[in-house]
Amino acid sequence: MIFGYARVSTQDQNLQMQIDELDKFGVLEIFEEKITGSKKDRPALNELLKVLRKGDRVVVYKLDRISRSTKHLIELAELFEEKGVEFISIKDNIDTSTATGRFFFRMMASISELERDIISERTRAGLSSARARGRQGGRPKKNEKAIQTALKMYHSKDYSISEIVKATGVSSATLYRNINKTVGNEKDGMKNEG
Fold first, then answer.
1. Is 9 among the catalytic positions?
2. Which is catalytic among the residues 9, 89, 110, 112?
3. Where is average pLDDT lowest: 100-104, 110-114, 130-134?
């Protein structure tokens, strides 16, 4: 079965030109969508992916009609390959039933994998370099002096939490976390004495 997928980004755009091209190509059923390409959830595309069987073909007018990004396009190509479905983009002259079409998608997949590896490698190198300089990853620690001031204000019972937060710049979450630590430490001290 030859399926088509046609999409435009807004409700006032017209799908007719894509539909005409898909009809000329011999598409038997067209899944139509008027939704921005950046949306992850596309009901018509999801429906198309559910009905595909081995030996089917998916035809689009252009690659950017079906995919949000290169990564998404590669994911779709891998899904089509797993299902034994051929993929054709009319304007981009891509047809995965040909050796050239399959080569194109494999090259894209390899480039994507290389990009992921490079990002991962850079992240690891950056963390390693930071550790060598004595820095740890994660959020920066709040100024210890500010936390101690906030705790003193809290224990004095003269200030509300919002007043303490405003005066010290310590967030209420950080303040409560440190209050709980001091309460826990006091309990541990009492157990050790008894």
1. yes
2. 9
3. 110-114
What strand order describes the sheet that includes 29-34? Answer: 29-34, 2-8, 57-60, 86-89, 94-95
Task: Identify whether 193 is part of a domain.
Answer: no
Please state the pTM of the whole predicted model: 0.55
Model confidence pLDDT, tens digit, residues 128-171: 877 787 776 655 566 788 888 989 999 898 888 889 999 888 88
d(CA 45, CA 33): 8
Cα-Cα-Cα-Cα torsion 95, 98, 99, 105, nearest 10 degrees, comes to 20
Whether the CB-CB separation of 65 and 6 falls below 8 Å is answered with: yes
The predicted pLDDT at position 30 comes to: 93
User: Are 106 and 163 in a shared domain?
Assistant: no
189 in any annotated domain: no
Structural domain for 162, as ranges: 144-183
